[in-house]
Request: fold
Amino acid sequence: MLLITGNARVDQTCSRRSILKAGTAGLIGFGLVDVLRAEQAAGIHGSRKALINVHLDGGAPHMDLTDLKPEAPSEIRGEFLPIATRLPGFEICELMPKLASIADRFAFIRSLVGSVGAHDAFQTQSGYASKDLQSLGGRPALGSTISKLQSSPSDGAPAFVDLMQGRGLVRNSARPGFLGPAYQPFRPDISHLFQRELEAGMKGELARLGQDHQVRLELNGSLSIDRLQSRTDLLSGLDRLKRNIDGSGMMSAMDQFHQQAVSILTSGSFADALDFNREPAASLARYTLPSQSSSLEQYTSEGPESVRKFLLARRLIEAGVRCVSISLSDFDTHSNNFGRMKQLLPILDHGLHALVTDLGERGLTDDVTIVVWGEFGRTPRIDPKTAGRHHWPQVGPCLLAGGGMKMGQVIGATDRTASVAVSRPVTYKDIFAQLYANLGIDARRTTLTDPQGRPQHLLDEGEPLSELRG
Reply:
């Protein structure tokens, strides 16, 4: 039995699933805040936390963002000047004044090490190289793990949503690995909201993924919800014999994923979260970048409308999604690094400021973790022929916010040319240990069973950052 009043009161026997079902049955404005309040009243714990993973597609130049070296030679320091932030003695790029004004709400990691140098987003999705456990299907992304541990196929919103349109999508970085297709991310088609031109070679990669790498959140007009459910039951019955003799479990996995897709399509709440027309005008204005030219320095780069990717992430989290991945493209600045940063950094600056302050006003700061990072950093030395910076796996940047962590910190340092970490090196697996901890999971003690029946720890190394303990 579920009782909901204006204060979202519930009895002690309800579940998050029933809370969401009631919320999608017609309660206007019933979002994550209401769900969390109802869960707390019902004594439900362990599923409250959420993650927004912001991928800086291509690998961002750390010395042009949060690790400027104004005393370095000109071929290192580049064009941009540092500006003061709310953290005494800490400066960031002049193109990010909004971020500087709320620097006390972030932890700035300047010593991220251990990049495998791969030009995709898999390491920022899992902590591992793509070759790890490849013979078993590979390691699962964090979001897929959350789908396995904290979700049900009948939920009205998926646990894991991947909105990476750039290299992360093309190279299928957010993948379920050995967990199988039941735990792949839900990947809605957002091309009508955000244009993302791909390089010629990447278009070929995307085409080879086929037509099923994304889903459209609408039903065929001739197929009612009742008919859809009947067809689901029929398919399940017809396949039962095959499923019983399928030793790999693949058919059961596909059954589960199909059931989840039906639940999502028929609930309506997830599709509503992708509809900006349902967002108040004042909130849309908050996520609108003023007075920036829509012309792109690079045809693969983001336009100013991409600030609303941050709004989309917030709306999905409020709809019940637990892990959302978005990307900003294209930080792969082999040429014209500074012109392209003038295009991209104001987008990142405005989007992060809007998201963090918005979550704060909604009372979600402690429950939603934000991580911002890329595949690696960029070369300290500017290429004199292309005015670009190339791949630099030796060290890179990472920003963290929310999640109940202790903010207002700068962790780690690099040498005078931003070439290597000289204090407090932090690995990708350390960051994932922190992210899992924020989600209520001890990654070094929690295991998943691989296809051979063996337990695999979520992380084989890495520790949460002691500096971030609240």
Remarks:
- The first strand starts at residue 50 and ends at 57.
- The chain has a mean pLDDT of 83.
- The CA atoms of residues 17 and 155 lie 6 Å apart.
- The two ends are 37 Å apart (CA to CA).
